[in-house]
Amino acid sequence: MKNIGILTPERLSGALCYHSEACCSGAAGAPAEEPFKLPPLAFAYDALEPYIDAQTVMIHHDKHHAAYVANLNKAVTGFPGFCGKSPCDILRDLNAIPAEIRTAVINHGGGVANHNFYWKILGPDNKGAKPKGELAKAIDKYFGSFSQFQEQLTKAATGQFGSGWGWLTLAKDGSLKVESTGNQDSPISQGREVLVTIDVWEHAYYLKYQNRRPEHTAAIWNLFNWDFISNRYAQLIKER
Ligand code: MN3
After folding, report:
1. What pTM was estimated for this model as a whole?
2. In the chain, which end has fewer C-beta atoms inside a 10 angstrom radius, N or C?
């Protein structure tokens, strides 16, 4: 059984952790491009209506997500070794990050990786969709049923104090876990793979839901792309 930690999400399911391939090509060590890029959205701003409104999607992606990318590029400026690495690769080994920029890279790199993943698992027309195949079986095994899993993840996301994220993660031993993290911390840094996430920073829902976080965490279940998530899980366990 291979260690699941060696898999890169890019290999499994496309550019979950977007970075620039061209950044290493500058002369005399000067990067030709900044190492990290903002992945474009795969859908229109209004595609997630009525559950997430167009203005929220636009500001969330074009301003907040973009700012994490810009700030991550700024943080690593002058530090070699980031070129060609994805934010996920970097977050898997926090001790390898130079101490003086470690906090900035955890915060902004987490912001980049978490949002890259967030936009990947959401999409229109997923209302009523459910996990499929091996993932459906694993959810039943570890949580009892889909509805019990849904209840646990909703509770973890809603109950996260302050800003953060709710997650479904896959541990190295193959078990599934519902958890939450504060700020932009990623379960990737704890050796787990991420499968589902709910962003509970206020910027993710405030324009439409104001202080009503539970309404947002209930509505987002209409948007999860279970085909993508189930395929990703199947690939992750196949490679182990
Ligand atoms: Mn966010």
Report:
1. 0.91
2. N
